[in-house]
Amino acid sequence: MECIIRPCRAEDCTEVMRMIRELAEFEKMPDQVQTSDQALREDGFANDPFYRCLVAEVAPDGQSRDGHTIVGYAIYFFTYSTWKGRNIYMEDLYVMPEFRGKGIGKKLMSKTAEIGLENQCTQLKFAVLDWNRAAIDFYQGKGAVDLTAAEGWHFFRFEGEPLEQLAQGQPGL
Amino acid sequence: MECIIRPCRAEDCTEVMRMIRELAEFEKMPDQVQTSDQALREDGFANDPFYRCLVAEVAPDGQSRDGHTIVGYAIYFFTYSTWKGRNIYMEDLYVMPEFRGKGIGKKLMSKTAEIGLENQCTQLKFAVLDWNRAAIDFYQGKGAVDLTAAEGWHFFRFEGEPLEQLAQGQPGL
Question: Residues in domain N-acetyltransferase (chains A, B) (predicted)?
Answer without folding.
Answer: 18-168
